[in-house]
Design a protein that fits this description.
- Helix 6 packs parallel to helix 7.
- Strand 5, helix 4 and strand 6 form a beta-alpha-beta unit.
- This protein is 35% helix and 21% strand.
- It is globular, with a radius of gyration of 16 Å.
- It contains 7 helices and 9 strands; from the N terminus they run βαββαβαβαββαβαβα.
- The longest helix has 17 residues.
- With 225 residues, the chain is of the alpha/beta class.
- The protein has one domain: Aldolase class I (TIM Barrel).
- An 8-stranded parallel β-barrel has the order 1-2-4-5-6-7-8-9.
């Protein structure tokens, strides 16, 4: 079943408690939590002390996305918060299986993220040992970037490989996800759609529930075609 995950980095940081209440009321039960180190990407977000009370609400399934160099350090830093998923970038390590094992040893589910320019084949050796694949449709670091349409071809290859290997980790997509891009992705196949400023946390009229419903309707319409 396809789900919407709110990219909480894009919410109002001065009113996160209210944001969480409104997201929960809107029926959004996944949160995507970006952690950025200012090195791997040219931006900073979100510290353990910010994410800890969010995770402790127990109202959301949480995925912490480590857009960081030295992911081993950040796994040790964020694993004690007990998110549901802890995801690192394939591009940041020479030994992904060791990091996956480290995450599993903390009792968490492991995800691997992959950037738009990285060949999707690079992730194939790890599909059987992870619970989540985060396919970036923009380069990580900033919201509001242009969607990179060639990623759709990568998603097609990924879905075929999952079928061949007979494994079924969650496919999460992140980067300028809106009604148009989500519908195109849905036609190929994904599970979790990370939504930020493009379709949720923006100044367009409507509540979070209404905006989420619009996006869900675009997914349903694509299935019916």
């Amino acid at each position: 079943m396809e789900k919407i995950a709110a990219s909480i980095m894009c919410g109002n940081q001065l009113a996160l408690g209210q944001e969480l209440q409104e997201l929960h009321a809107a029926g959004i039960d996944w949160l995507h939590c970006d952690v950025m180190d200012g090195v791997y990407v040219n931006n900073l977000a979100m510290a353990p002390y910010v994410l800890e009370p969010i995770i402790q609400t127990k109202k959301f399934i949480t995925d912490i996305h480590l857009a960081c160099v030295d992911p081993e350090k950040y796994i040790e830093m964020f694993a004690p918060l007990a998110p549901d998923y802890l995801t690192f970038h394939l591009e940041t390590t020479e030994d992904p299986k060791a990091l996956v094992k480290k995450i599993h040893n903390h009792g968490l589910k492991a995800g691997i993220a992959i950037n738009p320019e990285t060949p999707i084949e690079n992730i194939f050796p790890y599909l059987a040992v992870i619970e989540l694949i985060l396919v970036m449709t923009v380069n990580p670091g900033f919201a509001g970037q242009k969607f990179q349409w060639p990623v759709l071809e990568k998603l097609e290859l990924l879905n075929r490989q999952l079928e061949m290997q007979k494994v079924s980790p969650i496919i999460e997509v992140d980067g300028n996800i809106n009604s148009e891009t989500a519908a195109a992705i849905s036609k190929i196949g994904a599970t979790i759609y990370v939504v930020g400023t493009s379709a949720l946390f923006n100044t367009k009229p409507g509540s979070y529930g209404e905006k989420a419903d619009d996006l869900k309707q675009s997914l349903v319409s694509m299935k019916e075609k």
